[in-house]
Each structure stands twice: as C-alpha cells, then as structure tokens.
Amino acid sequence: MKAHIYAFGSICRGEVTPESDVDLLAITQGSDQRFSSDLYSIYSYARIAEIWNEGSAFAWHLSLEARLLYSPDNTDYLHELGAPAIYQSATRDCQKFFALFEGSAKALRAGTNSPVFELSTIFLAVRNFATCYSLGAGFPDFSRHSALRLGANSLAFPNNAFSILERARLLCTRGLGNMISKEEATSVTLALATIEQWMRALLITVGET
Fold first, then answer.
1. DSSP letters for 60-125
2. Which residues are CB-neighbours of 98 under 8 A, at least 6 positions away?
C-alpha cells in the first residue's frame, strides 16, 4: 500500500537534545496497519491536501521543515504540493492558545491537584502562541523556545521558571525528568502575570502583522 514517510520537528531543525523524540509523519491511502499512532502522525493524502489548501500552521510546519525518509515511487509528495495557502488564522490561533493558558493559570492559582499537568499545558500554550504569532508575522519559528526568539517581542520570563515549564512538559508527555516540587510550581505560578501581559500585548498587534 502506498505511503510517504517524513521526519519533522527538532531533528530537522538541528535542535536535538537527549530529551528529544523523533517526530514522524506517515501519509497513507486510508487505514494502514503498518503505522502505529503511538509512533507516527498519520494523515491521508486527501487530508494533507486539505490542510495545505487551508494554509494551517501545521501545513506550514511540514512545508518548511519536513524531510522525506521514504517514498514508494521516488516522489516527494509534500514538495509537489508546493507552498501552502497563506496563513490567515494567526489571530484566531493565538486567541485559542491564550484561552488555553488562562484556563491552566486559573487552575494553578486555585491550588489544583495536578500542577504538573497545568504547567505542561502552559508550556504548550506559550510555545504554540509564539509559533503562530511568528508565522503570522512572516518569520516562522517552530522551535520549543519560539517564545524566547521573537526579538523585541520575546517573552521576558525568568530562565529557571521557563525550564520548570519545559520539565513539566517532558514529564507529562514522556515521563522523563525530575518531578516538579511544590516550591517550583509556586514560583512559576507567581510569575504567570508576565506571560499573561506578554500574550495580551501581542494579541493587540497580531492582526496587524
């Protein structure tokens, strides 16, 4: 059965660390038992064509960073699709990730029983917010540190607090790393206003980029 396989993410950006995984994409003709959703992001050819036409952030991520690993007929399906449609949902996507941040920030401030999960969600929200902002502004950055690489619009957040958020993400997604202490969770919670102010400021300008 026909399938194209690509790598994408940190390994293609040259940002591999001991904690990195390898992001793999399998493009298939319907259900294909050779590929597990635990190891691959699995999309049909038709769905990939749709997200290309939508100009989604994920389509641009793949277009700019994916590298072909296997082709059944020496073709590069993604390359042949050309550039995705213009990305036009920066405002909507940033608002979505701001709302995600707000929900987890509220839970942390209320003394949630799942602080690591909420800290992990905040890391995801911050990273994706910054990525969508950068893509809308015309200088796409899909790295895990995209929020810290926006020039004058970078998130000014204490390095130790950001590293706690990153650790929480690794704990939740891969079970790797040292547990987050109560004191560490509290320190990040007390600094959340900085993230909120940063997001609110960029939301004012994101539609103008």
1. HHHHHH-EEEE-TTS--HHHHH-SPPPP--HHHHHHHHHHHHHHHHHHHHTT-S-HHHHHHHHHHH
2. 125, 129, 199, 200, 203
Confidence band of 209 (pLDDT split at 50, 70, 90): very low
> CA angle, 38 as apex, 35 and 41 as ends, to 5°?
65
Q: Which domains does the chain have, with CATH numbers?
A: 3-81 (3.30.460.10), 90-206 (1.20.120)
What does the pLDDT look like over 36-82, one tens digit per residue?
988 999 999 999 999 999 999 999 999 999 999 999 999 999 999 99
CA separation for the pair 99, 134 (Å, rounded): 18
pTM, two decimal places: 0.91
Three-state DSSP at 131 gives helix
